[in-house]
Specification:
It contains 21 helices and 2 strands. With 437 residues, the protein is mainly α. It has a two-stranded antiparallel sheet with strand order 1-2. Strand 1 and strand 2 form a beta hairpin.
């Protein structure tokens, strides 16, 4: 089973989630294959819809928090202004108490929607992992690489040639791996599948030319994969950059348009999605350079501009299937955002605040009536001080008694009481007899 897991994510957190999502993706593709449309592009869209629908409750909580945080932002800023420049302990404690009450009033946590993000992040990483490596999780697609990978494994010089392909660059360490050099069948075949899965059309032609005896298997495999990857007239296994270069070489206007539209749509849909998200900042407000919160908000604003551009840039070099995933994900999130925004806008915020305030009061009353709180309330500073003084007196008296006892020893000796030797010996005796405690 080791070899089977090599093309999958075997991380401790993302790995199990990817394994589960892989079964979902495999089920979707099997259904599409049963009805005669085994298409990876369509499977990616359906898969993305299913996952984001499952994440909808978490997304709703996250966006509700953002809406409430935007509404409470002026009150929070007023508290910060009230204690601006005050660094004494009392002021800091008072500011924390008022801030805590404000968050309780709006029914949101000071940690924000961290829990929702912590839950969502492994799922989204796993989602990306499954889509970027479909053969590792979808049995039908994986089987399409056979018998070619078996024949390549047995062919002379196959490893040397396959390692020169552009798609092999990210898998270069596999060829020096002990399992590869020792001839582990599953490891070698999985390595070839990972590379061939990301191989461009031109590299497939190179493989066919180099291994003329395997040309039949190469053509059969490439044809099957093209059928799986054909989406709206594009081969989503190819990168948009490759499509654009090929379009220029062949003067194919439609292919050029397809190569350009994928990164453009990826950037545009991401931009629309960020615009629909609740904003906690007044876009016309001036940014205070000394306010860390304001600087963070400005950074988020910059990221909202940069992320769509980065999506377009990455889409150019990655297989177009990843672009389809990003576009589908952004469209689904945007639709969810519109629905969530309408639902939250209809919510009576004042009633929500009143309910949260009442809930907070009950919580505080319950805490005050608890045995622990009563115990602390009954403790007085006066009693603590008396205990401390009593302990101090006992320690001081004990030390004085020990010093007097040492002095008494030397009063009975012939050594002069006022001599330096007498004093040194008295200290030595004291240390030897009493520091053992």
């Amino acid at each position: 089973m080791l070899g089977v897991l090599l093309t999958k994510d075997n991380g401790k957190i993302v790995g199990p989630v990817a394994w589960l999502l892989g079964h979902v993706m495999n089920g979707i593709f099997n259904v599409l294959n049963a009805i005669g449309i085994p298409n990876i592009g369509l499977a990616i869209i359906i898969f993305t819809i299913v996952i984001y629908l499952c994440l909808l409750p978490l997304t709703y909580k996250q966006q509700k928090f953002s809406k409430l945080q935007a509404k409470m932002s002026p009150e929070l800023k007023a508290i910060q202004e009230k204690y601006k420049g005050k660094k004494d302990n009392d002021s800091m404690l008072a500011m924390q108490a008022e801030t805590k009450e404000l968050y309780a009033k709006y029914g949101v946590s000071q940690t924000g929607s961290c829990l929702q993000l912590i839950i969502q992040m492994p799922i989204l990483f796993a989602l990306y992992r499954v889509i970027s490596n479909v053969p590792a999780y979808v049995t039908i697609v994986r089987n399409a690489f056979y018998p070619l990978v078996e024949e390549l494994r047995l062919a002379d010089g196959a490893a040397d040639f396959i390692s020169t392909l552009k798609s092999a660059a990210s898998f270069s360490s596999r060829f020096s791996n002990e399992q590869f050099t020792s001839g582990n069948v599953e490891f070698i075949e999985n390595t070839y599948i990972d590379i061939l899965n990301k191989t461009s059309t031109s590299d497939w032609a190179s493989i066919s030319e180099h291994f003329t005896s395997l040309s039949s298997s190469v053509d059969k495999t490439h044809t099957a994969l093209n059928a799986f990857n054909s989406f709206l007239g594009l081969n989503i296994a190819d990168s948009p950059m490759y499509m654009i270069q090929t379009a220029f070489a062949n003067r194919n206007f439609l292919l050029f348009f397809g190569g350009v539209i994928v990164p453009v749509l990826a950037a545009f849909t991401q931009w629309v999605n960020t615009k629909l998200m609740p904003q906690n900042v007044d876009p016309n407000a001036k940014i205070d350079p000394n306010d860390p919160a304001a600087q963070m908000q400005q950074s988020m604003k910059t990221m909202n501009i940069m992320m769509p551009l980065m999506s377009a840039f990455f889409c150019l070099s990655l297989p177009a299937g990843m672009g389809v995933y990003w576009i589908a994900g952004a469209v689904i999130r945007s639709i969810q955002q519109i629905v969530i925004n309408k639902h939250i806008d209809k919510t009576d915020i004042d009633a929500e605040i009143a309910k949260n305030t009442e809930k907070y009061k009950k919580k505080m009353e319950k805490m005050k009536s608890s045995p622990q709180m009563n115990m602390y309330a009954n403790m007085s500073t006066r009693n603590i001080t008396n205990v401390a003084k009593s302990a101090s007196t006992e320690v001081s008296g004990d030390v004085e008694a020990k010093v007097a006892n040492s002095r008494k020893v030397y009063e009975n000796n012939k050594i002069r009481k006022d001599s330096l030797l007498a004093k040194a010996n008295m200290v030595k005796d004291y240390n030897e007899n009493y520091n053992k405690d």
